[in-house]
Amino acid sequence: MHVTDAHVEPHRLRLSGRHAVLEVSCPLPGVLRLRHAPVSSEIGFLHPELPGKRSWSVIAEEGHPLKVERDGERARVTAEGVSLEVDVESGTWRFQDAQGRELARCVEVSGEVQAAYPMSRHRARMKLRAPEGERYLGFGEKVGPLDKRGMHFTFWNTDVVPHHPDTDPLYQSIPFFVGLRGGVAWGFFLDESWRSEVDVALADASRVAWESWGPELDCYLFAGPMPADVVRRYAALTGRPPLPPLWSLGAQQSRWGYENAQDIRGVIQGYRQRNLPLDCVYLDIDYMDGYKVWTWDSARYPDPAGLVREAAAQGVRLVPIIDPALKLEPGWNVYEDAKARDYLVRYDRGGVLVGEVWPKPAVFPDLTRPEVQRWWGGLHRDFVALGMAGFWNDMNEPSCFGVQPDVGILTLTSERAEGIGQVEGKTLPYDARHGEKRHLEVHNVYALGMAKGAFEGLRELRPEARPFLLTRAGFAGIQRYSAVWTGDNSSHWTQLETSLPMLMGLGLAAVAHTGVDIPGFIGRANGELLVRWMQTGTFYPLMRNHAGKGTSPQEPWRFGEPYLTLARAALERRYRLLPTLYTLMHEASETGIAPLRPLLMEAPGDPEAAGAFDQFLFGRDLLVAPVVRPGQTKRLAYLPAGAWLEWPGLERTGEVREGGQHVIADGPLDTVPVWLRAGGAVALTRPAMHTTDANWQHLEWHVHAAPEIHGRLYEDAGDGYGESRLTELRGGVTAGVLRLERSEMGTLTRARTEEKIRVYGLTSVRKVTGARAHHFEDGVLELQVAADWTRLDVAP
């Protein structure tokens, strides 16, 4: 780089050389932004000033002061909680925390630009030191174990049917990871929407190498020291997920193949006649008239509003699929309006780009532009008026099966220019025009723009209700608007197993409301796979049964007994868990930390925890090790430090096991291995056929006695933005005496008059103060208390 000028402002440092620029700023405490432009002199007109840049992901303002010191060949930048030492000759740097620990080191930055038609070819590269033993977690929706060291990923949203355990890229692009070394965590986020790749110490075991196909490397560095600290800071930078409506946490049913209103009525009746809980049914593309989004096939769905009312009478919401591609049909008002407003993606030569998806021919609204997003949000109006509870955004990579040829312009050598019409995957050409930008730059954020338009439109159209969106594609920041499912998986055991690290990777990027298709979208599941997937899916934040057209039906009763009874038990367990899940989703809305967590979130210094990719923490206090392989009735599980009570299926209890060891758990087909942490207190309710509100009329606290006890419960109406109540349960066992205290914040009136408390791990009980009644047997103390209790004492 060889710095020739240093421009210092209170909140920004700019180091520039003949060709390159590095800007450093601090958007948040513990976070630094480094904007590398290695070929600045060739891409702009004002070098060394950098052109303004709009981030699709970052919502934090840059405004924290910097302290800058220059010492020969080093420039040192200090901000709140972090510092950066820059080599002014090379532009490389060392990132340190407040304790002076080196968290990350950049060893090389480079770039190139080649003039070409219709657009120049850019590459910007960065290499980070990869110390031996450092783990790299996250990267969003990616395959592989928790630790992605030794893997290579491409960030290019791709429609893949079906995907496999080694498929890359997939539907989401979130170039963010958490580094972990010696129990200390840090984070890295590449805020570039361009196609990019990362080599995670695969080609060179000592380097993590990033490459963007854009002209810059705009990256953010996050200090820990805990993984949760990194995630909180990333969520503060890119946005925290909103609290979803309670009903969206209930059981959901979908199928590409419910072809008419009678099919929808039938599946609801099928659930209800078999006493199966259900809150939501999706409408796939067959509801549309000729695959025109925002329309109804009047033969198949003659009375959508009546269908909504019938479903609501059974406690069920309806959610239609929404695809972005518009049918090119002259006279259709949506197409004509988009065309008249110049809201459509264009070829390089300027004409409206024409492709094929489900509608043929199809055109694409340019959902990367704010004015088009606002227009798109308004198109939800009629469906909202019908009573549709939420919307399912699909095919939004965007997927395109084929583009009508646009031959382009020949070069001076009378050859087809490189880049014209080039397509990677089933999508639009690299050179397609989105306003002033090319598809190569905005492809990865197309779905983010679609979700933003829908979310903001729903907030205006139905301000009293929380929007619910489900998306297949997305980019960093998608958590602000939408839940995410992992696309078109298969009915294979390997996909059940790999769903866990995939969802945990999304959770590390603050994408909290996630799930996968149960028991696989493509293929044919058997009864055992259905049951095991439903048992695992009990703990997915989003629990949806979904299948593809042309596959065997997969509703829970299709597999006969004993699988139906076991599936019912899994659904009932899900509804018992809702107070805890709802509280964890509220926590995510405050911190960005997802309900489904890797063990490393709580045990970052434990090397064994990194290998436990087929088990997870549900919140802080429940450890779940589902059976994810066929024919198994036992499984090996790892318990991190602490004491853990066997609590299979949230029902019967077993031994207390000390952590820091592997244990063999019993897992017959009716059992989900679960453990409750010592000091943990989780809230359950009774099972129900559907949700009503989150002001629980029946509540049970389950407490594992320990020197320190903590539990938390968030309650409200289950939707909207009204009154709420947050309950904190604290206490512990001191000198053999158990004390529990409850405190509340909020104005929500309590719906119950009493609560039940079950305390595990006591050896004897002589006296109980503060309870209406108690019963002690086999180490379990059951208490009946008034709902407004404030303190309990249990003496041995």
Radius of gyration: 27 Å
Which architecture of the domain at 5-130 and 184-224 does the CATH hierarchy give at level 2? Sandwich
Mean pLDDT: 96
Q: How far do the termini sit from each other? A: 71 Å
Helix segment tally: 13
Low-confidence stretches: none
Output the CATH homologous superfamily of the domain at 5-130 and 184-224.
glycosyl hydrolase (family 31)
> CATH top level of the domain at 5-130 and 184-224?
Mainly Beta
Total beta-strand segments: 52
Task: Please tell me what the overall shape is.
Answer: globular
The SS-based structural class is alpha+beta
Helix content: 10-25%
CATH topology of the domain at 5-130 and 184-224: Immunoglobulin-like
Q: How are the strands ordered across the major sheet?
A: 49-52-47-46-45-43-44-48-51-50
The largest sheet, given as strand count, sense and whether it forms a barrel, is: 10 strands, mixed
How big a fraction of the residues is strand? Answer: 25-35%
Protein name: Alpha-glucosidase 2
Pfam family, one: Glyco_hydro_31_2nd
Family: Belongs to the glycosyl hydrolase 31 family.
GO molecular function, one term: carbohydrate binding
